[in-house]
Amino acid sequence: MLLDKGHKLLRLKSSLRRHITIAEQGKSSICTFATSEEYDSLTTRGSTGKAEEFNMEIDTPTQLPMFNSAHTEQKLMPRAAPPTGILSMDDFMKQNQDEHQAQREARYATAGPPTRKPKTSENATPLTPVAVGARSSKHTILLHEKYQALGIPQPLFTYEGSSSSSWAARVSFPGLENVEELQGLSGDKGCNSKQEAKEALSEKALAVLEEMERQGRVKKVEKNRKKSVGGQLEQQQSLGEKEPVENYVGKLLEYQRATSGPQPTYNDYQSGTQFACLLTLEGHPHPFGTLTSLFSSKKAARQDAARHAVEHFKALGTWPQDTPIGGIKKKKKAQQPFPPPSSSSSPPSSSSVLSPIQPPFPNQTPTVIAIGTGTTSFAQRVATLAATLALPTPEWKYVSHPSDPNFHSVACFFRGAGPHEGPIGEVRNVFGKKKAKEECARLTLEYLLDVREKRRAYGARMMAGVESGESEDEFVDAEEGSLI
To answer: Where in the numbering of this chain does the DRBM domain appear (predicted)?
Structure first.
């Protein structure tokens, strides 16, 4: 029994020595001592005098070695000397500084100085406009006038292509299916725009149409052959609508048609984002317009070129004077729509025309007299008679038929004329715009003549009442509602 206890004590001592050695190697001398149940039993028994009391260490698990913090003050290891032949960056730069400076100077000597963007100044040379194309509608207009004169339907144009590549066009004449030459007629490819393709194809189609007319395969449609297609006249436009700006392009085109002159050609120029235009006319050596006046759109540039042409014709004295009826008219000799009134001593003849406020003699029967001469159109006669009746200038409202634009509906309006405001003389679906207006003007003239006769009759009755001594109240009651 004692031997077993001795062996156990030896094992404990050897374990204690092993822990002390490990603690010295890790520079740690922390150990934990405690009393075990076996040690308590041994010391209890040794207190009887058979064994000595011993302080023993408990065999605990081995702890990891404890190291000092990196922030604690420690002795630095001596720095090893650098290997032979290796330089630091600072030493290398100092040693090769002269060679590096020489390379920089050689590089800057061969390369030029950096270029700077020149600043624009007021003395800089302005940009010169570059021609971007020519625009002319000569053959398109001629083809339009040709098929209108023949009374055939409007030709149908179809386009192929895109703005990025080019445009091509084809045309067919509806109503002339028996003429194969006028069906699916194609033009040249490679046009820059639809308008250019249409102009080139119109020239070709016009030549074919004239040839078919000479051969007798295309004939003029009789005037009495009209389509009876229903249509409604649009309502009168609002009175507060603003009048458009002066259209010099339209005026010049109308002037050239009235004088049977050539159609103008507009040459467009572009400078940056702005445009200029020069107008050329056959028979005039110099173009109209200027390249120094630039505009934000081609349309405005063409209007300016047309304005120069209009001012040129006005300076020559060939431009017609404005008429109260509107539009461009050829110069005519001044005509008196009414013969001069006879002297007050002699009674007026049956052919004399009286003022609307001057009643005839009671025994005289009013006579309807045609206004103007036979060469005056119905529209001019309507304008003259309207001024005599103290009515405003007549306005003609046109509406084209949706299925065929060659047929028009027209009505006449007198703005602000009360019961005579309109519509008056309305006609529907008449072939040709000019023919429709003349027909409407003829009906309007009949209406105005009837108004004039009613006013004369009213004046005669009023004069008869004054001469017979009828009181004013009785006369008003008798004639109430008869004033037109």
So the answer is: 247-315
Helix, strand or coil for residue 271? strand
Across-strand partners of 183? none
Q: Which residues of 236-260 are buried (b: 16+ CB within 10 A; e: fewer)?
A: eeeeeeeeeeeebbebbbebbeeee
Q: Quick one: pLDDT at residue 467?
A: 66
Q: Which two tokens stand for residue 389?
A: 């009746």
Q: Which residues pair with 172 in a beta bridge?
A: 156
372 burial level (CB within 10 Å; 0-12, 13-18, 19+): middle
Residues 216-246: tens digit of each pLDDT = 888 887 765 444 444 443 443 433 334 446 8
Q: Within the chain, how many helices (H) and strands (E) appear?
A: 11, 10
Nearest Cα to Cα of residue 302 among 262, 255, 266: 266
Q: How many residues comprise the chain?
A: 484
Report the predicted TM-score, pTM, of the whole model to 2 decimal places: 0.28
Distance CA 110, CA 346 (A): 114
Strands (E), 296-449: 395-400, 407-413, 424-431
Q: What is the pLDDT of residue 59?
A: 59
Domains of the chain: 2-50 (no CATH), 130-215 (3.30.160.20), 248-316 (3.30.160.20), 378-478 (3.30.160.20)
Residue 197 pLDDT: 85
Q: What is the pLDDT of residue 301?
A: 93
Query: Quick one: angle between helices 194-215 and 138-150, nearest 10?
Result: 40
* 171: its two tokens: 């045309």
List, in sequence order, the alpha helices (H) in 374-432: 378-388
Residues 6+ apart with CB under 8 A from 301: 268, 269, 275, 276, 277, 289, 293, 294, 295
> What does the pLDDT read at residue 339?
45
Going by their DSSP bridges, the two strands 265-271 and 130-136 should be labelled as antiparallel
Q: How far is CA 366 from CA 171, 356, 418, in A?
A: 59, 12, 26
Point out the residues of the chain with pLDDT beneath 50: 27-53, 225-244, 323-326, 333-374, 471, 474-484
First to last CA, the chain: 159
* Inter-residue contact 267 to 277 (CB < 8 Å): yes
- The span from the CA of 192 to the CA of 138, in Å, is 18
For the record, the structure tokens of 147 come out as: 């098929």
- Packing angle between helix 248-258 and helix 298-316, nearest 10 degrees? 50
Side chain identity at residue 230, one-letter code: G
